[in-house]
Design brief:
Blueprint lengths: L8 E5 L4 H12 L3 E6 L2 H12 L5 E5 L5 H15 L4 E4 L9 H26 L6 E5 L13 H20 L5 E7 L8 H8 L1 H8 L10 H12 L10 E4 L10
Parallel strand pairs: 1-2, 1-4, 2-3, 4-5, 5-6, 6-7
């Protein structure tokens, strides 16, 4: 299937590893030009080099998206380098530090960086024929999982912001959607570490997934690509749950 994405310009935060990297790889393979950022200079340099081999424009920068001014300035630079911005993918999370530090961190990364990213992209969206936003949340925002912590709470807040924003920007032709992945197994990622260090918890979580396995970053990326593509042109305000059936609520 041709997703009609060739030539689209997409900004992806946290685009050097895990789900963000998979989204960047998938979109570049579909002919999208991509701009990625992350905190590690080495990771950004390596990812830019690998993505550039796909024959598309790639720009990247090492920065902390919690620095709103620096983040907005980079989006402006990236948009100019790519020749515009058609889509923004918000894909970051804060630290799980104890106490107020963790709550503030998760707010700054999950919600405030998304707000700053959308605002910085808006001027470019005016020139796009298919502008859209994709927010990466989690099924832990939908049902209780592990604890009453800041990560789950702020990802839930991100879903609320995403849904409200879709109503606000729809009249301008800007689509806004969210994706809530369940357990996604990535080599070296959190579930890989849990499997190695907390095997009983890993197995008990796996047992709650009707499909009998954890998902892959590429499966999340495929959904992101469809939402961004013109083929998803009538989809906005939705939250796509990708969890193998782990969440038990009915998705009305």
């Amino acid at each position: 299937m041709d997703l009609k994405l060739s030539g689209h310009n997409v900004i992806i935060t946290g685009g050097t590893k895990g789900i963000g990297r998979a989204i960047a790889e998938t979109l570049a393979s579909e002919g999208c030009n991509v701009g990625i950022c992350a905190r590690s200079e080495d990771d950004v340099t390596s990812a830019v080099a690998a993505l550039s081999e796909k024959g598309v424009k790639v720009t990247g920068k090492a920065l902390d998206v919690a620095d709103g001014d620096a983040f907005a300035a980079w989006i402006q630079e990236a948009g100019e380098a790519l020749g515009g911005i058609d889509a923004f993918v918000s894909n970051v999370a804060g630290s799980n530090a104890p106490g107020d530090e963790g709550w503030i961190s998760q707010f700054n990364y999950n919600i405030l960086s998304a707000v700053h990213g959308v605002e910085a992209c808006k001027p470019f969206f005016k020139e796009s024929t298919n502008p859209s936003v994709v927010m990466i949340s989690t099924t832990a925002a939908l049902e209780h999982f592990m604890n009453a912590g800041p990560y789950n709470a702020m990802k839930a807040g991100l879903l609320n912001y995403s849904g409200a924003l879709s109503q606000e920007l729809g009249a301008k032709g800007i689509r806004v959607n969210a994706i809530s992945p369940g357990p996604i197994f990535i080599e070296g990622g959190s579930w890989d570490k849990i499997k190695q260090g907390m095997a009983p918890f890993y197995e008990s979580t796996l047992a709650t997934i009707p499909l009998g396995r954890m998902g892959t970053a590429e499966e999340v990326a495929a959904q992101a690509a469809l939402l961004i593509s013109p083929l998803g042109g009538f989809t906005t305000g939705t939250n796509v749950v990708i969890d193998g059936g782990m969440t038990k609520r009915i998705q009305y």
